[in-house]
Amino acid sequence: MSDKTVLIVEDDEDILELLAYNLQNAGFSPITSQDGHDALAQVKRIAPILIILDIMLPGLDGFEVCKELKRNSKTSNIPVIMLTARGEEVDRIVGLELGADDYVVKPFSPRELILRVRAVLKRATPETPQKQFLQRGGLSVDLEAHRAELDGQELALTATEFKLLSELFRSQGRVQTRDQLLNTVWGYEFEGYARTVDTHIRRLRQKLGPYSEMVETVRGVGYRFKD
Q1: What's the fold here for domain 5-124?
Q2: 56, 78, 142, 179: which has the highest count of C-beta atoms within 10 A?
């Protein structure tokens, strides 16, 4: 399969065709699935570079598909963008809590969809930074290897969580507003998505365990990594 292969999991044929059309025009190679069980089978067979996953699916819903993907070491690093209905904030938060990298709200604009796909893929691609290794006590971040360890044990971070930790770590001592984090980590600026940052911070703190207090909340402003 092409390294541009994107799996779309959506049971509404009109939305499925719209997604496939716009992804193909943007240079990707879309493949499709209309139910959760088939989607998991396709992922094992094809290993796409990204999955666009609707929540409401027959057989196995998007939450269960995402949960299964993220607990399998062979598929946990595949970025997932979830599709949610407008106004269903609880669905978006649950999706992010399960490990989804981002979400797109229906009805969506094709431009926003492609922007988010590119941004998520960019986060999943390791960069070559100037300072390649960060360490504080038992917490270390190897930016070149795209690897974080806690007391010698590798942290199971999604691409977004790793980028968020790296950005906060590199800017330690300085407050990062939610808007700044949306721009530097997610790669876009949209009103109403500040909750995305909060949800990922909460997940990151859970994984940092005893080091969670290093990520401070600056009330009314944003977040800061302790200097």
Answers
A1: Rossmann fold (3.40.50)
A2: 78
